[in-house]
Specification:
Elements (H helix, E strand, L loop, with lengths): L1 H22 L7 H9 L6 H35 L11 H14 L6 H24 L7 H25 L4 H9 L7 H20 L1 H8 L2 H6 L4 H23 L5 H12 L4 H25 L8 H18 L6
Helix pairs in contact: 1-3, 1-13, 2-3, 3-8, 3-11, 3-12, 3-13, 4-5, 4-6, 4-7, 5-6, 5-11, 8-11, 8-13, 9-13, 12-13, 13-14
Length: 329
């Protein structure tokens, strides 16, 4: 099948991106040497130290975050029937940022593991509020209400965050770290519970791909085929919150992956969500890996936050998409 060949091509591209991510940095390591390190991870040497203790965890984090954002974006666009939808539409980024500031300013939380769970809970609360407000009093989901509820929650949590920062400016350094989006200095051990959430939610999304296709056919057709549309939408909302919330908690606010990748995959692979979601997982991980690799080497010995790099890639695409009226094709 043509889709299978294209998906295999994405997988090979992702593997190449992983190898590049492990090789690139302030000190370049030859790909052959990287492979040797992966085959013999217990061997001694400076290159083993760089690859195993620093770059490998960062690469694995980029894989999880990129695939989560891309799949969450594809589900958001299907759920709201809005081609400009992305995980940020649920107020998830603003909710996570507010939770981080609240935890550091009011409760004096300082451990990275505490920040992770603060961000995840903040994202989950914001997403849940948007879902409840957007669906309140509606027999069926209203995409416009979801957009308005998301915009309102984003503005509300942003205002709360600014108010807390005015009172306690010591939390500014912490919140800037999350707002910029970064994959550096991430402890894979501390992030393991959230990575498990990502894996479970990703598996759930792939299993529901067929139901998403039916839902996309329209309310009347989906109901006529016996689909419980309300339940399906609720499950999709939970999956989006888990995927996007985990991504924000792990890496901060990284934009455009959730918006950009689904359109690329839809155009180059298939509109069928059974292929689309798998393609988004691979392409999202690959794009974030390439952006992070470029962020590490573009201004050596310093590095640019990966959120800045994705914005540079994504902003022109967003403008072009808006000029086309938000059409998929």
């Amino acid at each position: 099948m043509r889709e299978g060949v294209k998906l295999l091509g994405l997988l090979l591209g992702l593997l190449s991106s992983v190898l590049l991510s492990l090789a690139a940095g302030a000190n370049w390591i030859a790909p052959a040497q990287v492979l040797d390190v992966l085959i013999h991870p217990d061997a001694l040497g400076l290159s083993h130290e760089w690859v195993v203790t620093t770059r490998l965890s960062r690469t694995l984090m980029a894989l999880a975050v990129g695939s989560s954002l891309a799949v969450a974006g594809a589900l958001m666009q299907a759920l709201t029937r809005n081609p400009l939808a992305s995980p940020g539409l649920f107020g998830i980024n603003a909710g996570a940022t507010f939770a981080i500031i609240l935890g550091t300013s009011v409760f004096a939380l300082s451990a990275p593991q505490q920040w992770l769970w603060c961000a995840f809970l903040g994202a989950a609360v914001a997403g849940s509020l948007v879902w409840i407000i957007g669906n309140r009093g509606q027999g069926s989901l209203n995409p416009l209400r979801i957009v308005l509820a998301g915009a309102a929650m984003t503005a509300l949590f942003s205002a709360f965050s600014q108010a807390l920062l005015v009172v306690n400016q010591e939390g500014l350094d912490t919140v800037l770290f999350w707002l910029a989006g970064s994959l550096s200095e991430r402890d894979l051990g501390l992030a393991t519970p959230l990575l498990v959430v990502v894996l479970v939610a990703m598996a759930g999304a792939l299993l529901m791909a067929g139901q998403v296709n039916v839902l996309n056919a329209g309310e009347a057709i989906a109901t006529g085929l016996g689909q419980r549309t309300g339940l399906i939408r609720l499950l999709l909302g939970v999956l989006i919150i888990c995927l996007a919330g985990s991504a924000v908690a792990l890496a901060g606010s990284i934009g455009f992956i959730g918006l950009l990748v689904p359109h690329m995959v839809r155009k180059g692979l298939s509109v069928d969500h059974r292929w689309l979601l798998s393609g988004c997982a691979l392409a999202g991980a690959m794009l974030l890996l390439l952006a992070d690799t470029l962020a590490r080497v573009v201004i050596l010995p310093q590095e640019v936050p990966v959120g800045v790099m994705t914005a540079l890639f994504g902003a022109p695409f967003f403008i072009a998409l808006a000029r086309r009226g938000g059409r998929y094709e």
